[in-house]
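Section 5: illustrative case.
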């Protein structure tokens, strides 16, 4: 199984950052490798989605359930598709820097294991770079949406 985690301190409210991560339908517009997200069902605290993700000619479709605990965390649990295991967790911790400026620590965690050894080996080779690009894309989207708020 492959795992990765990263943290960022961002100068925005936890609730605003939570809203951006919770907007899964927007992911294809700013996350490289996320080709399509279709929400299959939605309730107050969770949704089920079908996701098409990939790089170049390698695309896979999987389903997942996204659990919301506003504005504290978002957890993605694997449903069906090419994985044996997939878990993704975002947590948002409100904090203050000097002079009472609003800031939030965002923690990101992901772990996965593909059924096909070929995919697992291929993804392990590029995984860290891909996840870092996803985090940078998220940060870019945050600044694009919130810079004037």
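Designed sequence:
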């Amino acid at each position: 199984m492959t795992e990765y985690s990263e943290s960022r301190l961002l100068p925005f409210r936890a609730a605003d950052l939570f809203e951006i991560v919770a907007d899964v339908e927007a992911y294809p517009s700013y996350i490289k490798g996320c080709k399509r997200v279709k929400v299959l069902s939605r309730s107050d605290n969770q949704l089920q989605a079908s996701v098409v993700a990939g790089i170049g000619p390698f695309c896979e479709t999987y389903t997942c359930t996204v659990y919301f605990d506003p504005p504290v965390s978002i957890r993605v649990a694997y449903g069906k598709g090419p994985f044996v295991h997939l878990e993704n967790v975002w947590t948002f911790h409100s904090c203050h820097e000097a002079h009472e400026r609003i800031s939030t620590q965002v923690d990101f965690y992901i772990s996965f294991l593909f059924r096909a050894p070929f995919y697992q080996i291929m993804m392990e080779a590029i995984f860290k770079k891909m996840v870092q690009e996803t985090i940078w894309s998220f940060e870019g989207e945050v600044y694009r949406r919130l810079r004037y708020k």
